[in-house]
What does this fold into?
Amino acid sequence: MIPQQKDKKKKLIYIYILLLILITSINNKNIYNENIFSNELIFKITGLSYTDNQKLIRDLIDVNNKNIFQIDEKKIFEKITENNLVLNFFAKKEYPNKIEIIINKATYIGKIYKNNKLFLIGSNGKLIDHNANNMKDLPYFYGDFKRDEFLKLLSVINKIQLDIKNISSFYFFPSGRWDIKFKGGLLVKLPVKDLMNTLSKVLLLKNNQNFRNSKIIDLRIKNSIISND
It folds into this structure.
């Protein structure tokens, strides 16, 4: 055989061998990825009741049936925040196929009737369809208020450390202001603005001997206190 033909034949053999190695490597890589990263996602959720945790896990599996690298984080966020019990949450990935979600549950702030049904109001401003009749210490809320208006009031209450267990009901008016009725019978009429200072004043007035027998304290007019015994 001519030397040039021998060299050409050897080169072809080398090329075939390299192609075979390359194809085998690609197939092995695909098998490796399939075995490790295509496992079914496992969600671990804590923070809610067992029943609510399991329901949320099923909901998340329905919208995320791929591996951990292909999850839709937006859908996970939306599905978790759809649950009105959730105040906030923290999620982390644990490779190869586990996602842990730690939920801070909303606390119950009050009760409200909507469409002839009694709901709880959470600290996230959302309505919670649980057995509200068992929450006897919680105040009732009346009026057609928005979530932002409720959260604004709640923020002020928390800052001045007003104990809602001493309150029997909150009344919201179309003008954007609130009335608060305490369990002792005192009704406080609040202005639309300056809730922080006004509610701080309420705490002082409740402990003032001059207003001990008052049934109504009207604080709607700035720098004015109108009392009705």
